[in-house]
Amino acid sequence: MSSYNSEIEPLVSVAMIVAMSKNRIIGVDGNLPWHLSEDLKFFKRMTQAKPLVMGRKTFTSIGKPLPNRLNIVITRDKTFAHDGVRVCHELADALTLADQQATIDAAEEIMVMGGGEIYRQALPYAQRLYITEVDIEVEGDASFPELAAGEWQEVQRVAGTPAEGQPSYDFVVYERTAD
Predict the structure, then answer these.
(1) Which residue intervals define the domain DHFR in the entry (predicted)?
(2) Which residue, of 5, 119, 167, 174, has the greatest Cβ tally within 10 A?
């Protein structure tokens, strides 16, 4: 995990949103390892009208900018460009841009939405985590970082309603504990 960079101090709260398996897998070959319609609706509801920060691979897996949200893509590729997204090459720049837009729009938080490396870099700045905990273990190539014991407190848990043949899952909100 990246160490805390004191140069990044967003005025607006930073949150992360993710769906992960019991073994912390979030993706396989650029895709989600499951299709949970209720989770996609939860994601849309929680991110609506908030700036989104994501890595290029995550953006590519979606294929287009998500509507009604500033889409900020972090990539090392200096030539990457896509209509409807803002491109940054460092997490600090992405969070600064998201913070400026959130302040203008009066959004209550910035949403970091992956992938694995972006989550690892952004975790030190996050104050809230929206995690869909999927009750399954899967193989994959992208994972969510471990949470340090005592740093996070569960503040809400709501059971999802899986369709037939789908794994069970919970929508869980964690907040960073006071230092």
Answers:
(1) 13-176
(2) 119
Residue type, 116: G
Q: Could you tell me whether strands 85-88 and 71-74 are parallel, antiparallel, or unpaired per DSSP bridges?
A: parallel
Task: Please list, residue by residue across 92-114, b when 16 or more beta carbons sit within 10 angstroms of its beta carbon and e when fewer do.
Answer: eebbbbbbebbeeeebebbbbbb
Average pLDDT, the chain: 93
Tell me which amino acid residue 122 is. A
CATH 3.30.540.10 for domain 14-176:
no
Cβ neighbors of 155 (< 8 A, separation 6 or more) are 173, 174, 175
CA distances (Å), origin 7, targets 15, 55, 103, 158, 162: 18, 20, 18, 36, 42
